[in-house]
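It would be a great kindness if you could assist me with a short task in structural biology. Thank you for your consideration; the sequence and its tokens are set out here.
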Amino acid sequence: MVRKAVAIMFALALLGSPAVFAQEREDLQMFRDISDQVNGYTQFTIFDSVAASVKDGEVVLSGWVTMPYKKDDIERRVRRVEGVATVQNDIGVLPVSQFDDELRFRIARAIYGNSSFWNYAAMANPPIHIVVNRGRVTLVGTVNSHVERVLARSLATGFGAFDVKNELKTDAEVQAELEKISN
């Protein structure tokens, strides 16, 4: 069961030759190691979201973090992963905003305070990330079911956000994507 705190997505083009297959396997292992590095970063919170793509040892990082030092720290951690040749750091830093901060905390309390999500709230790295950028909310991460995805979006509305985008995926969807990549 895939239960990572961060919704890290990547795509590999499957071509079929043995050399390409070996490289894809290495890229998949690198991706997993990168995921461990990001999830193991103690300053990474439910208000940050980082995605990575890996192709032939070249890593592209994207997403959002709440503080500039997090962008740099995550890049340093990723560079230490064995097999990483280059890192392109496209992680954005969310602007400082009291309105955004209040929105983050209200939505987090609404979602993780709901009894349907208590099991997630008890995790060291809760799987639902709440990214707020200039009053626009994006929910990123994984949940167990479509019902939880809809409920999380419903709980995130009504706090004065200009927009709420739901990019949550179910465990089954993430698992299917990983199987598609590894086959």
Remarks:
- Helices lie at 18-39, 68-79, 98-112, 118-121, 146-156, 171-182.
